Amino acid sequence: MLSLSSSPLIPTLLLLLSLPLLFLLIPHLLPPRPHPISLPDDLDDLSLFRKAAAVSPPHRSLPSSKSRLGSTNPKPKIAFLFLTNSDLHFAPLWEIFFANGSTNQFNIYVHADPTVKINPPGGVFSADRFVPAKKTERSSATLISAARRLIANALIDDPSNAFFALLSQHCIPLHSFNFVYNTLFHRSIAELAQLGTLQYRSFIEILTTKKILWARYNARGKNVMLPEVPFDQFRVGSQFFVLTRRHAVLVIRDRRLWRKFRLPCVWIQSCYPEEHYFPTLLSMEDPEGCTGYTLTRVNWTDSINGHPHTYRSQELSTELIYNLRKSNFTHSYLFARKFSPDCLSPLLNISNSVIFRD
C-alpha cells in the first residue's frame, strides 16, 4: 500500500495551494512595466504635430544677421517650455527673471501632468500658458511626448519663437534674461560667422558613452531598435536642451524614430527614453547643426536612482551660483537643476545682487 507522502496527489495539491501566493508575490518580484502610450493619445498628438508642421516650413531658420537689423522684422523670441508634475515652486524667481526682458522677446508654455493637482502660480505663469497636457511617467516615452507637445504648441502659437528651451520645475536661471537672450542670439552671430554660416545651432548634449549605451539600447528588448536606429548611431544626452526652430520642426515631423522610442521598456532600470530620443534624432539628421552640449548644469556626482544631486537651502551661496555657471564649452551655463523648494527664499535673497547681476 502506498504511503500518503508518496502519492502523486500531494505535489499537485501543494502546487494548487501555492498559486495564489505566487500571484501575490510576482508583481513585487518583477520590476514595474510602464503603460505604453495609448493609441488615442498618440493619434491626438499626431493631429497636433501635423497642425504645427503645416504652419512651420521645414527649412525655415532664424532670420539672417542682416535682416535682424531691419526694423520691419519681428524680434525673434525664446520659447521657454516648462515640463512639470508638481507646483512651479520657483515661479517667483522666474518672475524676476522675465521682468528684465520685454514681452516681445519671450513666450512661456507649461505642460503640467493632469493627474497631479497643480496650482497655476499666476503672473507670467497664468493658466492660459498651460498647454493641453497628458500624463507623464518616468521610464517611459511619455516624457518625450510631453516635450514634443510643448514644442508643437509653441510653433503654432507664435512664428517668432526662434529658440525652444526645455526646462523643469526644478530648474533655476543662472543669469539675467538679457544675458540669456544675448547669448542665444547676438553672441552666436560672431561664432557662426567664423564657420561661414548664418544658421544658429541647437544646444543639446550628444554623447556616445558606450559604458551605459548597450543596456539602454536594449531596454525595449534585444535589437528592437533595428533597423531604424543602429547601435552605432544611438546617443545619450541631457533631458533638457535649447533647440532652434528648424530642429523644433524636425522633432515634431519625425515619425520614423518615434515608432521605436514609443515602445515600452522591458528593462526599467535601463529605461531613459527622453535622454536618448532627441540626441539620437538630431545626431542622425543634423549633427553639424548641434553644439553637442547643453546650457543646463546638472550635478551627477552623487546621483541616486537616476536622479541628479538635489541642492538644499543650506548649500545655497554666491560661490555656488558662480561655480554652476562655469563651463568647459564656448558658452557658460544659463540654467541649473535640481533644486528643492526650500531653496526659493535664499535664491530670492541673492537674485538681484548675484544671479541677475552679470
UniProtKB/TrEMBL annotation:
It comes from Camellia sinensis var. sinensis. It is a single-pass type II membrane protein. PANTHER family: CORE-2/I-BRANCHING BETA-1,6-N-ACETYLGLUCOSAMINYLTRANSFERASE FAMILY PROTEIN-RELATED (PTHR31042), CORE-2_I-BRANCHING BETA-1,6-N-ACETYLGLUCOSAMINYLTRANSFERASE FAMILY PROTEIN (PTHR31042:SF140). GO terms for molecular function: glycosyltransferase activity. Residues 1-24 form the signal peptide. It comes from the Eukaryota. This is Uncharacterized protein. InterPro entries: BC10-like, Glyco_trans_14. Keywords: Glycoprotein, Glycosyltransferase, Membrane, Signal, Transferase. It is found in: Membrane. Pfam families: Branch.
